[in-house]
Design brief:
heterodimer, A: about 325 residues, alpha+beta, two-stranded antiparallel sheet, 8 helices, disordered C terminus, B: about 240 residues, alpha/beta, five-stranded parallel beta sheet, four-stranded antiparallel beta sheet, 12 strands, about 45% helix
């Protein structure tokens, strides 16, 4: 609310500044023209010695240039201010979301600990509570690790964890692990691999990419979720198409989903929880693998396809990479 | 912990975090409450329309309808339904918004189990007292004022208006003790159930609001009068 107000106030100030600028410009022209006329009419009568060969336009032009420059600076200032306000708003949303994501599992753990301390909980129930606490601890750990990963990703992490893997072995495994982790039924996933190639990847980071894609598909799905993954390899590159039948993404939002802290709002599924970092991480991770990720959706209600494109390891380089000689 | 008979009390728990909901459901059931757990705002409103509940425990960040929207809808349909907001959102604005939209209490996560259970018990106790008091005397008239304690609709010389839950409970308590001095502490104990976040000043603020609603000249009250160093007294000249 405060931010929206501050944006409106800035807009009002900007419009007001432009009006002032326009008024000053008009006054300047008016002053110059009237003074020039007076000078021409009166100057000759009062002091015929002063001879004006031609009216000097230099002060007039300099004045206009300075005023125009002022207006240009105002426009630039306002533009930067708008960007800053938008970023602050996104950051505030992120803080609110991350606070929620951290506090929820922490509260559950506290609730179970207090329950176990104050009540005589039967052994089977106790075991269930311990399992739930472990699940929440894992959730906290994942979240904290993910936040800590940002700095590594943004600092273009070193590639010590990169190793060569066969695509038809590692990718289906990573995707299945993600689907299992989110407790989706087995039949909700269909993975097809065409061709065979090897990639030079950091497996842990890549698991995060698929975790985020699966998590998004779950969060933005309204019915029975179906995920289809097509993995295509050729001599030059690897293409992974990750397709879901969730709510889809409008054209306007497709450009923004990889931005840091950006979150989609859909009135059919409001209040989806998250940090706005998942797809940003995915893009940054894939960038460190010299690949790219893009999104396509035919519109609302028509599902979404994320495409990951990556270079493959050329056969002649494999022995060198296995020896770790081209890690950078 | 289980001191009060809670056999008939039915609670609607609206919480989308499964682990939290399971823990709450277990503890509330152990206290003798009957608990219905729903995961989203849509299901919460459906359950509320279909069944009778004594209290709603409401998270804010929920799918479909958030806790604020649910509180507003519930309050419109049933002005007396006790609503406890239980949320990870700790911002002052969120809290004020929740209470303004009709929540009776607001507890932030992480919370202490004992505190939650005490608050639930207090809210149910107040509801029970209020329901009983309303059955005995559903409406009350004094001067040009008229209060319907069932739907909280009121009338004064200027027109009609709606009381909030707390305003109605304070009025009910003062009217029940007509002619007697009621201390701030007594009001805190009986209306707010000594909620540690409520200060004595809050009572005074509510009295100011009630005087604006029912007194012709709020600065010189004739119905809700202050008794120096003691509290407040409701009086009607017969």
């Amino acid at each position: 609310m405060r931010l929206r107000h501050s944006f409106v106030y800035n807009l009002i100030i900007f419009v007001f500044a432009q009006l002032v600028w326009l008024a000053v410009l008009l006054l300047w022209i008016y002053w110059y023209v009237t003074n020039n006329i007076i000078f021409e009419q009166v100057g000759e009568e009062l002091s015929p010695q002063i001879v004006v060969d031609a009216p000097s336009v230099a002060p007039f032009v300099v004045g206009i240039v300075m005023l125009t420059g002022l207006s240009f600076i105002l426009v630039l200032f306002f533009r930067h201010l708008s960007i800053q306000i938008r970023l602050t708003k996104l950051y505030d949303n992120f803080i609110a979301n991350i606070t929620h994501e951290l506090k929820s599992p922490l509260s559950s753990i506290q609730l179970y600990l207090e329950t176990l301390r104050t009540r005589d909980v039967p052994p089977d129930k106790s075991k269930e509570f311990y399992d739930l606490m472990i699940r929440d601890s894992a959730r906290l750990q994942n979240l904290i690790n993910s936040i800590l990963e940002i700095s590594a990703l943004e600092g273009k992490q070193n590639r010590n964890h990169f190793t060569i893997h066969r695509v038809n072995e590692i990718f289906p495994k990573l995707i299945r692990d993600s689907v299992e982790q989110f407790r989706l039924p087995e039949n909700s996933l269909d993975v097809k691999v065409t061709g065979d190639c090897e990639v030079f990847i950091d497996v842990i980071s890549f698991k995060m990419v698929f975790d985020n894609l699966v998590d998004n598909a779950i969060k933005y799905s309204t019915g029975n979720l179906k995920i289809e993954v097509n993995i295509n390899c050729n001599q030059k590159k690897l293409i992974v198409d990750f397709k879901d039948n969730a709510i889809g993404i409008t054209g306007k939002e497709q450009k923004k989903v990889f931005q840091k802290f950006y979150r989609i709002y859909d009135k059919d599924i409001p209040n989806v929880k998250g940090t706005g970092l998942g797809l940003y991480w995915a893009r940054e991770i894939i960038k460190t693998h010299k690949g790219k990720i893009s999104v396509h959706s035919d519109g609302k209600g028509k599902g979404t396809t994320f495409r990951i494109e990556m270079p493959v390891v050329k056969k002649e380089l494999i022995p060198l990479q296995r020896k770790g000689k081209i890690n950078e | 912990m289980n001191e009060l008979s809670t056999e008939a009390n039915k609670i609607l728990l609206v919480e989308d975090e499964e682990t939290m909901a399971l823990g709450l459901e277990y503890n509330l059931s152990e206290e003798g409450y009957e608990v219905d757990w729903v995961k989203d705002g849509k299901a919460a409103l459906e359950h509320f329309d279909e069944q009778n509940y004594d209290l709603i425990i409401l998270d804010i960040m929920l799918p479909y309808y958030d806790g604020f929207e649910i509180a507003e809808i519930v309050r419109r349909k049933n002005p007396q339904m006790p609503i406890l907001m239980l949320t990870a959102r700790t911002g002052f604005d969120d809290k004020v918004r929740g209470l303004e939209l009709g929540a009776d209490d607001y507890l932030t996560k992480p919370f202490h189990l004992k505190e939650l259970l005490l608050r639930v018990k207090g809210m149910l106790k107040r509801k029970s007292w209020y329901s009983e008091a309303v059955t005995n005397q559903p409406a009350y008239k004094f001067g040009d004022n008229e209060i319907n304690f069932e739907n909280l609709k009121c009338k004064n010389e200027k027109g009609r208006f709606q009381l909030t839950n707390y305003e109605a409970m304070i009025m009910k308590y003062l009217i029940e003790n007509k002619g007697k001095v009621v201390s701030r502490k007594e009001l805190l104990e009986n209306v707010w159930n000594l909620n540690p976040e409520v200060e004595t000043r809050t009572v005074d603020n509510f009295i100011v609001r009630l005087r604006k609603r029912f007194e012709k000249d709020p600065s010189n009250p004739v119905y809700i009068v202050s008794v120096r160093s003691a509290g407040y007294m409701f009086q009607v000249q017969d």
